[in-house]
Design brief:
- By secondary structure, this protein is α+β, with helices and mostly antiparallel strands.
- Helices cover 30% and strands 26% of the residues.
- The strands form 5 sheets. Strands 2, 5, 7, 9, 10, 11, 12, 13 and 15 form a 9-stranded antiparallel sheet that branches. It has an 8-stranded antiparallel sheet with strand order 6-1-24-21-26-19-18-16, with no helix packed on it. A 6-stranded mixed sheet has the order 17-27-20-25-22-23.
- Helix 5 crosses helix 6 and helix 5 crosses helix 7.
- The protein is elongated, with a radius of gyration of 24 Å.
Length: 509
């Protein structure tokens, strides 16, 4: 039985929040870091990425070093696929102003960019990611809008941009044929914007902002609402220009992207080469273990516009919003979140008495179509407890609220083979971060008379274990079948496995 308590570091970026209002700063301080009230706190990193590695509390040594010395903690299938590395990176973000309009490279592009510009692209891994709101009102730009909607917005809000792009380019967005095959028209229009003369961009922004500001002022009736009379994208143009003045092309690029607003407990996921920008709010975020970002606007950092515009997918559509799937409670017996030969779990003993007995223990699953990660939200009411079955891969647990205890049993790393850093029982409270080896069962108990224990658990995507079996089961005798199974993650093919069949069982007591 084993768990490791971790010390995790915060990152200070210009888009972060002041310490007194930043969840990142509050969690980092409770986790053991000193806080500088003069700094902005943006990200808390939990994982092994060398840019901000987590340390083991008991020894002060890097978690990555411990994993390398004890690779069994990852589980056999994770080792076979990812080597002796934790495949995901877990974060908390506190966003005060917009992050850059950006994308993350796929694996092939990441390897190329890292080889060419290792200082700009610090590793050779891809970076699919998922953002889960921890409070209401998280805002983001995600993926391209439908071409017709972009054209309508430009004609209404930004005739200067229509002139910049050219009537032919904008009319192509409106063409009926474009609605069936949108990629070329989107690529041409977005590329024309991103490569336009900077002086023309600045002139267009100045004219648009002046017009929208006048319209907002005339519609506010003296009530001071500077966004009155404007649609959401127009209001955003004014906000982004105030945050990034001086002609940043990202102000105009925002008109091409979907505005997304999430309440607490909702999530969106983003594949490689999809444009996005977080605007405001606080989230937990999980991604493949990478720090590669291709930026093109809303940033003082290096902008790689050519790489971004040439590698985007140009797939329009509103991103899928995940609500979290409630995992069933089991009265007796369980076979793990990743049960069975094919990784598909079958709920055991789901009935009324189990529900009554375990009503204070709730677990929601967020499963994106990426093999490296999924997230569980664990909620334990005061005085209640429950069991999270073993996972075939490693987990990182962040306690965001409440206090109580966690008890470990099982696990892939026998304690007698390690030092005193492994713990079987840990009293936990807000700010605690734990690494949990593969095969470990966790018993969560919330202290009575306090707020509920709330934990976020990052784990390897359970569908990975099913596809891994298909890939290795096919073997060299049928490499095409193996490649097809593995590629289904890249193409989003996990949808072929119904989420209802990928749920495991939980025990409550």
């Amino acid at each position: 039985p084993s768990m490791l308590s971790l010390r995790c570091q915060a990152q200070n970026y210009g888009w972060g929040r002041p310490a007194e209002t930043s969840e990142v700063a509050k969690l980092a301080q409770l986790n053991g870091s000193s806080i500088d009230d003069s700094q902005l706190y943006a990200e808390l990193w939990m994982g092994t990425h060398p840019n901000c590695p987590s340390m083991i509390c008991a020894t002060g040594s890097p978690l990555a070093q411990w994993i390398e010395a004890h690779p069994d903690c990852l589980g056999l299938k994770v080792q076979q696929r990812f080597g002796h590395s934790l495949p995901f990176l877990f974060k908390v973000l506190s966003v005060n102003k917009a992050l850059s309009i950006q994308s993350h490279p796929d694996k092939q592009l990441a390897e190329k960019l890292h080889a060419q510009h290792p200082k700009l692209y610090p590793d050779d891994n891809h970076k699919p990611e998922m953002a889960l709101a921890i409070s209401d009102g998280f805002e983001a730009l995600c993926s391209f809008r439908q071409p017709q909607a972009i054209a309508s917005q430009l004609r209404k809000t930004a005739p200067e941009v229509v002139q910049l792009l050219g009537q032919v380019t904008v009319e192509a967005l409106e063409s009926p044929s474009t609605q069936q095959e949108p990629k070329e028209a989107l690529r041409n229009a977005f590329s024309a914007l991103m490569t336009a003369d900077p002086a023309s961009i600045t002139s267009a922004i100045d004219a648009i902002v002046a017009r929208l500001s006048t319209q907002a002022a005339s519609s506010s009736n003296g009530q001071g609402n500077d966004a009155a009379g404007l649609d959401p994208h127009e209001s955003l143009v004014l906000r982004l220009n105030s945050q990034y003045p001086g002609g940043d092309v990202g102000v105009l690029a925002s008109l091409f992207l979907n505005r997304v607003s999430l309440n607490a407990g909702q999530a969106v996921y983003l594949a490689a080469n999809e444009p996005h920008a977080y605007l405001a709010g606080e989230i937990v975020e999980v991604m493949a273990s990478s720090d590669n970002v291709v930026r093109a606007g809303l940033t003082p950092k290096f902008k790689d516009c050519d790489v971004l515009r040439n590698t985007l997918t140009y797939r329009p559509g509103f991103p899928e919003v995940l609500q979290g799937t409630s995992l069933p409670l089991a009265k007796t017996g369980y076979d793990g979140l990743h049960a069975g030969e094919n990784g598909v779990g079958t709920p055991a003993g789901v009935n009324g008495s189990a529900g009554e007995k375990g009503q204070g223990f709730r677990v929601s699953l967020y499963k994106p179509p990426f093999e490296e990660f999924e997230v569980l939200r664990v909620h334990v009411a005061g005085g209640s407890s429950g069991v999270l079955p073993p996972n075939k891969g490693p987990m990182i647990v962040l306690v965001q609220g409440g206090k109580g205890s966690m008890q470990a049993s099982g696990g892939s790393v026998p304690k007698h083979l390690c030092g005193e850093e492994l713990q079987e029982h840990i009293d936990v409270s807000r700010g605690c971060v734990l690494f949990v080896p593969a095969g470990t069962q966790l018993n969560f108990a919330s202290a009575p008379g306090v707020e509920p224990l709330l934990a976020w658990v990052s784990a390897v995507n359970s569908t990975f274990f099913q596809l891994h079996g298909a890939v290795h089961g096919a073997g060299s005798a049928n490499p095409a079948a193996a490649g097809s199974a593995e590629a289904s993650f890249v193409q989003g093919g996990v949808a072929a496995v119904p989420a209802s069949k990928l749920q495991g069982s939980l025990m409550a007591n």
